[in-house]
């Protein structure tokens, strides 16, 4: 069955883009930012947002870095299974899902640990602010400090062995350093409400960029999709597994 | 005389944006990327590209970091003086110019220096590639390495004392780390010709992003305008000098 070609004319002529041409590639996310990052490099997947509730409990994970990978995996598998069920004759060739969390560093003394570990920061996942006042409180905490942005990416694709699909994941981590901003700048940002719907309470690619002095890592990861690691990973999978995307 | 208001509705309500409202603000650059970075945070200056030839000799500068600052200063002064001459009754309130260069790190043994200095890298300014083959050569040099992006920003604004204007400058430096890409990816990028017209031979905000694993610094600086430092600087100037932008 012919599909919308996900590979745009301006895509680089690399093995990954050549293999993806004409395939059914699905992005399990409705985020306009993720779609734009992919579009810039020449990939325009079909968009099928996941219905997964994104309600995993943070307490079920030993490390907060596992959380976005687990959420991305639930999203990708839900969309893959749903599309196969809807039309078993036309399964997706590749489903891509991503989840991004913002981790704060808080210093928590842990009883019974050695001195060198007492000041080891234990990252915790920052939620979306519930109000402008809550956003201001979060920005005051972050001001002059850094946080860490972690994106989990999971791909699901058909294989012959049961259950008929394979799941693979990566995660990408970037540090975001906040400038030492005057309080009136933080107040003005909280007032503009851009940060209300954002994990961590800021949008690096918007007016929130004015609060951020530097990023250490992939900037696109902070926006929501680490596109460089994603494509280098696809190129490796193609090299290692001749059946991948065939 | 009423001007196009350079401050957009979505700008943060900070002292700098409040002072800039209704003022004649001029960007001495036709770069769509610089205009877009400023537009995102709410500033839309009048655009008057400089006619300065950008032909300063690198050999006239002790340090390559001085070069973009000098070019930005020539651009800003040329535009300011031209606009004042064209209409002495309506001088600009603020002219903003920027120049971005890409510095490579090359290891050059310096005779007579101590051992610890022998491997000190001496940065040199990377030019725009002259052809696809030249672009590929530059990308092979950068692959798995880092380069440094430096933007000089100069502002010119009216003061009572001769010559009737003041000049101030900052520079911003960011490191760009290239992934260890397979040669076929570098070849595909050179083939797409996106890098031909770019200093250093790549565009971080385009398909060239696929070659770059991380940035250490302000991402917008690598694109061409360090907007965070620029606005924090304006806020400081307002605080220090009550006549600034009055």
TrEMBL record, chains A, B:
Gene3D superfamilies: 3.90.950.10. Its cofactor is a divalent metal cation. InterPro entries: ITPase-like_fam (IPR029001), Maf-like (IPR003697). It comes from the Eukaryota. The keyword Hydrolase applies. Pfam families: Maf. Keywords: Hydrolase. One of its GO terms (molecular function) is nucleoside triphosphate diphosphatase activity. HAMAP family: Maf. This is Maf/Ham1. It comes from Dacryopinax primogenitus (strain DJM 731) (Brown rot fungus).
């Amino acid at each position: 069955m012919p599909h919308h070609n996900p590979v745009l004319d301006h895509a680089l002529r690399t093995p990954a883009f050549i293999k993806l041409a004409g395939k059914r590639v699905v992005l399990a996310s409705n985020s306009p930012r993720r779609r734009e990052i992919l579009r810039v490099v020449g990939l325009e997947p079909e968009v099928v947002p996941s219905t997964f509730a994104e309600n995993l409990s943070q307490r079920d994970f030993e490390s907060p870095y596992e959380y976005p990978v687990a959420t991305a995996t639930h999203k990708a598998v839900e969309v893959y299974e749903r599309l196969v069920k809807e039309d078993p004759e036309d399964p997706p060739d590749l489903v891509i899902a991503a989840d991004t969390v913002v981790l704060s560093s808080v210093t928590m003394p842990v009883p019974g640990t050695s001195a060198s570990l007492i000041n080891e920061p234990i990252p915790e996942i920052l939620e979306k602010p519930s109000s402008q006042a809550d956003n201001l409180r979060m920005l005051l905490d972050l001001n002059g400090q850094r946080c860490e942005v972690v994106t989990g990416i999971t791909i699901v694709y058909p294989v012959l062995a049961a259950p008929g699909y394979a799941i693979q994941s990566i995660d990408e981590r970037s540090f975001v350093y906040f400038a030492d901003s005057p309080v009136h700048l933080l107040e003005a940002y909280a007032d503009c409400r851009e940060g209300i719907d954002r994990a961590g309470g800021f949008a690096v690619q918007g007016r929130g960029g004015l609060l951020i002095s530097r990023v250490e890592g992939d900037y696109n990861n902070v926006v929501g999709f680490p596109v460089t690691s994603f494509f280098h990973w696809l190129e490796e999978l193609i090299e290692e597994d001749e059946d991948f995307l065939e």
